[in-house]
Amino acid sequence: MSRIDFASRVGVWWTSDQWSINDVIGRAREIEQLGYGSLFYGEAGGKETFTQAAALLSGTERLVVGTGIANIHARSAPASESGARTLTAQHPGRFVLGLGVSHAPLVERSYAGSYSRPLSTMREYLQTMDAVPAEVEPGAQRPTRLLAALGPKMIELSSTAADGAHPYLVTPEHTASTREQLGPDKWVVSEQAAALTTDRQEGLRRGHQHLHMYSQLPNYQNSWLRQGFDESDLVVGGSDRLAEGMVAMGDAETVAAQVTRHLDAGADHVVIQVLGEDPAADPLPALRELAPALGLG
To answer: What is the CATH number of domain 10-293?
Structure first.
């Protein structure tokens, strides 16, 4: 298994595009002090992912920083490989390169690209990365790669051409099936959204708000159908059943129990995405409350 020096088995997933990078670094330092082992974040037209990773890695001491995910349509394969090698050379064991094919509407609108053959596109992208000569960052480790893998074919590619998978918006049962397909020697880093509130209606509101965009994307719709949901769950914002299936709602112990289900199902590491009152809310108050229930500190 490739090297990732997680300080604990639980981390954080937080896309902070609406925050200044200096404020993000300050919060990353507290996330590290609380005992969380990582900070993963997305890339969908906000901050540039490698620049952000460099800032976060330099601004913390042992926190693992992961792209969740870097959009392969946003840069060439050699650029991804060489940039990731440089970060790995500077911060061994602390950078995880999560890669994904993104979604047709985003790729065609924001990158003027074609979304045909996503599996073949990813396979060819990884092969081109492998061909980058060793003279680029000589002596550096190859960056640890995880793929945003929801369906069985992309999960298989995560095993044969990468170091594991980064499942997003999945149940513990999906984590278990991913582990079974990947075997014991690949990384599984699962994301778990959480609404830290004992008010069910408020939890559902946050869940539907969170799912609003995702529920309109075919990749996630197909993933949820494979996970046992049905067409009635695929309304904009998701049904209540889908929201409760994707978002852990309740007190700190309830959220921690859902994280444990992913770990028991075979995840090596789980990243918690805190859903606040609005998407730009500061995640730290909830992360502070969750840390003792998660056994961190």
So the answer is: 3.20.20.30
